[in-house]
UniProtKB/TrEMBL annotation:
<dbReference type="InterPro" id="IPR029021">
    <property type="entry name" value="Prot-tyrosine_phosphatase-like"/>
</dbReference>
<protein>
    <submittedName>
        <fullName>Protein tyrosine/serine phosphatase</fullName>
    </submittedName>
</protein>
<dbReference type="InterPro" id="IPR000387">
    <property type="entry name" value="Tyr_Pase_dom"/>
</dbReference>
<dbReference type="InterPro" id="IPR016130">
    <property type="entry name" value="Tyr_Pase_AS"/>
</dbReference>
<feature type="domain" description="Tyrosine specific protein phosphatases">
    <location>
        <begin position="159"/>
        <end position="206"/>
    </location>
</feature>
<dbReference type="GO" id="GO:0004721">
    <property type="term" value="F:phosphoprotein phosphatase activity"/>
</dbReference>
<comment type="similarity">
    <text>Belongs to the protein-tyrosine phosphatase family.</text>
</comment>
<dbReference type="Pfam" id="PF13350">
    <property type="entry name" value="Y_phosphatase3"/>
</dbReference>
<dbReference type="InterPro" id="IPR026893">
    <property type="entry name" value="Tyr/Ser_Pase_IphP-type"/>
</dbReference>
Length: 285
């Protein structure tokens, strides 16, 4: 891993934010991060996580009763959701699930959780290609692969980046968890925007993103155990899956250069000052 080590205070803060669950490897609270005005984000409002399919009964009780989880923002593709099947949180009436894929899909833009109630539809053979594709934004071929992928989310599904943030901003009392498969790429991009709106400095956003590297071995082991992700996990080595600080740092630099920062990108895509204020309040007060 090439990111710089955290200092003692930052390391303790980061460690305290992990939520150790039986069924996930990469769940942590976005509370406790410093903001540029001297404040901190509030714990218990927004979590980030990897796949929630294998939560234990104890995990579900802890999330619902102790953490007060009330909303799940799922960034996986429709194919992933259908192939993985219903996770245990889907059986909890008080938890709302929302789906916003960040990858282009061939048709099937319906409510995946409504479809899920019926018999599993027959998936086209080429849907397997959309599980973990590497989308590249036009004009960004000179950037590193991970940076190109992240810019691809913004280029190809900007409406769903915005929709995911709207869901977080408008969430009911209690906690919201944002997740994808590994909780590092798609989740990392949406979380970066949320933290930027909350006033968290770029370097703290970068450090939060890179924190997933601490659990990458466990994360890969879990994903390899799933038929949905096994081939992708085996095809690439640990190093290629490991998030690096310079990736998110470069994405934020490009957002600054091209749009005046993440907030400028959001404003340009219809998520203006009023909605940004609501998202900031969700994370700050």
């Amino acid at each position: 891993m090439s990111s710089a080590p955290l200092d003692g205070v930052a390391e303790r803060r980061a460690t305290d934010r992990w939520l150790r669950l039986d069924g996930t490897a990469n769940t942590r609270d976005l509370g406790g991060l410093p903001t540029s005005d001297g404040g901190r984000t509030v714990p218990g409002r927004v979590l980030r996580s990897d796949n929630l399919q294998t939560l234990s009964e104890a995990d579900v009780r802890r999330l619902v009763d102790d953490v007060r989880l009330r909303e799940v923002v799922d960034l996986r593709t429709t194919a992933e959701v259908l192939l993985e099947g219903r996770g245990p949180l889907r059986a909890v009436p008080g938890v709302t699930h929302r789906h916003f894929t960040l990858l282009p899909e061939r048709g099937h833009h319906t409510d995946v959780f409504a479809v899920e109630e019926d018999a599993l539809p027959e998936l086209p053979a080429d849907w397997a290609e959309s599980i973990l594709p590497r989308q590249v934004a036009e004009g960004d071929q000179g950037e590193p692969p991970a940076v190109r992928s992240y810019l691809g989310y913004l280029a190809h599904r900007p409406e769903n980046v915005v929709a995911a943030l709207r869901a977080v901003a408008a969430a009911p009392d209690g906690a919201t968890v944002v997740h994808c498969a590994a909780g590092k790429d798609r989740t990392g991009v949406v979380v970066a925007f949320a933290l930027a709106v909350a006033g968290v400095p770029h370097e703290e956003i970068v450090a939060d993103y890179a924190l997933t590297a601490e659990v990458i071995d466990d994360l890969m082991t879990r994903l390899t155990a799933s038929p949905t992700y096994a081939e992708d996990m085996v095809r690439r080595d640990v190093a290629s899956h490991t998030p690096r600080a310079e990736t998110m740092r470069r994405v934020l630099e490009l957002l600054d250069e091209r749009h005046g920062g993440p907030q400028g990108w959001l404003t340009g895509h219809g998520f203006g000052a009023e909605e940004q204020a609501a998202l900031r309040a969700r994370l700050r007060s």
